[in-house]
Each structure stands twice: as C-alpha cells, then as structure tokens.
Design brief:
It is built from 14 helices and ten strands. The chain is α/β, with parallel strands linked by helices. The chain starts with 46 loop residues before the first helix and ends in a 17-residue tail after the last helix.
C-alpha cells in the first residue's frame, strides 16, 4: 500500500540584526525562532475497515491487479458460445423472455450469491460472463463477485447494446448525448483534507467474516440505486461529491463542475486516497463509458460509501466532443461500429 510521508518538524531560524546609522548599539541576542510543528491530520480508519482492507489485499488485491476491471467484448463471447462458458443475464424476466443470448440463464442480481454457492460449481467454467442492458450493472456485479473470490467472472462491455442492434437502439444509441458539453469546466478542483473512511459496524472479528456480511448486504440491497443520470447530476452538482476517474489530460480538457480527479489506478484500497472521499454526502463516480466506474462504485459501496455510477459515463453528456477528440484524447465514444448482429433466442 502506498503511503505518504510528511516531515515531522519544520525549523526556520531567523537572524534579525539591527543597525541604526553609524551609532553603536548593543547587539540583540540572536534567537532561534521555531515555528509550530506541522503534523498531518490523523486519518480515522475503523478496526473493521482495516481488517477488511487487509483481507482483500492478502487475497489478491483485485482492484489493483492487472485483470481489473474484468471486461470482455461481445465478439469474444459470441466466439465462445458452445464452449465451456456460462452467460448470466441480469435483465428482467420480461426482457430475457423477449430475446437473449443462446444458453444464457436469467438471474436477479439479488440471487447471485446463493446461485454461485449452491446452484452451480463456478470454477468448472472457463468463464462466467455477466450481461445487463448497458454493461454497468453487470460491471458492478462482476466486481463484487471477483472480490468474493470468483476469479473467472467477466462483464460484457456495452451490455446487450453490443450484441444486437435491436438492443442498441433502446440502450446506448439512445442514451448517448452531447447535452451538457457547454456546462463543463476546466478548473482543477482540490480534494478535501484526509479525514476518515466510513465506519463498518458488522460486529464481526475477522476480515473474511466482515467481507461476507458486507457482500450479503449489498446483494440484498439490489442494484436499483447504483445508477444516476447526467440530468440528475448537472441539475445540482453541488449536491454530490463527484469523482472523475480519467487521465489528467482528459480531466483538464473539461469535466463536470466541481468534480475531483482520482487516478484510475492507485485509489481503491489506499487509505490515504479513499479517506479524502466525504462520508456525509452521495458520491458520483464517472469515467468515459461507465464500466470502470461501475467497478469502482462496487468497491466504494463495499466500504460503506453512498456511491453511484454515472449512467453512460462521459458518453451520456459530452458524446459529440468525444467523437471530435477520439484520436487526440483516446476517447471511447459509443457508435454503430460497436454494435453487432449476433443471434438472440426466445
């Protein structure tokens, strides 16, 4: 874990000689004036939080590993059909019945823990692919399952919108927008002082037990409140603490008013980063596509933050700008080229 070190003491020695014309004057005694010692504000990390952090780090530190975030393209899923994979569709039963990927199973988000524990033998599959309508709920679910130890779970990028044009028309192609491009700012917003992380109060004594309790709670809560729209955020940005998960050049070129940049890598799991995130207001996390932020939102909620992921990411409010700067800033604007025409079954 990265740590920041601060000087323990700062000494300034001031010598103030005094002279008045050519008259001799009893020299003043030289005094060493020592400023107040500058000490860092202590970060409040509860015992349960520390135990959970330690347990996750010892078990692979997923959020800082090379496989984070675990996304897979629709084309690869299509090529793998008929092989040793399992596709889990998280959409509603109605959506599933109207068309789904061949051999996919339909499960509610809340049903995932018991399904993985007793419904299947997860590690008998080469890959388990989570699918949702836009890829953000599946990203959220995938992160939680990965943190629980299921290392063969992936989220299908862009969701069903990437599978077939039928879904893209009602999903990503309908959701992309340049509506708020003129509302962006270039101001660099500083983080608040390091203070604390949320206090976990499960009453349990080991990191593993605490994690199990937190995962169970998040799945019981469901995924209906993990998404937030650009309209909601731009209507009152000050209501939220907004986290931008982008490279510095992308952030500097324009971001949501008030948003604070955190590094895509090197934030999650590091107390000297996470402790600057307020615990007394809703958190909005956003990135280019909403996929990475879906993974980050899962981790923050695991530790008690009231975090949501911005639906469609930057694509949801500055899509035209992303297209214009696709090469210059390596944006990933969703478009018809990302839509396939793969088979669906009923």
């Amino acid at each position: 874990m990265k740590r920041k070190y601060y000087p323990l003491f700062l000494f300034i020695l001031l010598f103030i000689p005094s002279f008045t014309g050519c008259k001799s004057k009893k020299p003043e005694n030289k005094q060493a004036v020592v400023q107040d010692v500058i000490k860092p504000v202590p970060i409040t990390i509860g015992n349960e939080t520390a135990l959970l952090l330690k347990d996750l780090k010892e078990n692979g530190d997923y959020v800082n590993s090379k496989v984070f975030p675990s996304l897979i393209k629709a084309s690869i899923v299509n090529e793998s059909l008929g092989k040793n994979i399992l596709v889990v569709d998280l959409r509603t039963p109605k959506q599933f019945s109207e068309g789904h990927i061949k051999s996919a199973v339909n499960k509610k988000f809340e049903e995932l823990p018991p399904y993985f524990e007793t419904g299947i033998k997860p590690f008998e599959f080469d890959k388990i692919i989570m699918v949702s309508d836009d890829g953000q709920v599946s990203s959220y679910a995938t992160c939680l399952l990965r943190l629980m130890g299921y290392g063969n779970v992936y989220s299908m990028r862009w969701g069903m919108s990437a599978w077939n044009n039928r879904y893209a028309q009602e999903g990503w192609l309908k959701g992309v927008s340049g509506k708020y491009e003129k509302n962006l700012e270039n101001t660099v917003n500083e983080r608040p002082p390091l203070l604390a992380m949320p206090e976990l109060k499960t009453g349990l004594l080991t990191g593993s037990e605490i994690g199990t309790a937190r995962f169970r709670k998040l799945f019981e809560e469901g995924a209906s409140n993990i998404l937030i729209t650009a309209d909601e955020v731009f209507s009152n940005p000050k209501k939220y603490y907004i986290i931008n998960l982008e490279r510095k050049d992308k952030y500097d070129d324009g971001h949501i008013p008030g948003s604070v940049r955190y590094k895509p890598e090197g934030t999650l799991g590091f107390t000297d980063e996470m402790a600057s995130i307020p615990t007394d207001k809703p958190i909005v996390v956003y990135c280019g596509t909403g996929h990475n932020s879906g993974f980050a939102t899962a981790y923050l909620r695991l530790f008690g933050y009231d975090a949501r992921t911005l639906k469609y990411g930057n694509n949801g409010f500055m899509h035209d700008k992303m297209i214009k700067q696709r090469t210059a800033l390596s944006w990933l604007p969703f478009g018809s080229e990302d839509v396939n025409n793969f088979e669906v079954v009923k």
